Amino acid sequence: MSELDQVPQTAGQGVSTQNGVASVERRAFGLPGVPAALLWLLLVIVAAGLFFFGGALSVVGMVLGVVALFGLIGFFIVQPNQASVLTLFGRYVGTERRNGFYWTNPFTLRQSVSLRIRNFNSERLKVNDLMGNPIEIAAVIVWRVVDTARALFDVEDYAGFVAIQAETGLRHLASQYPYDNYEESGLSLRGNADAVAEALGSELTTRLRHAGVEVLEARLSHLAYSPEIAGAMLQRQQASAIIAARSQIVAGAVGMVEMALKQLSEQNIVQLDEERKAQMVSNLLVVLTSERGTQPIVNAGSL
Question: Across the strands, what pairs with 118?
Answer without folding.
Answer: 143
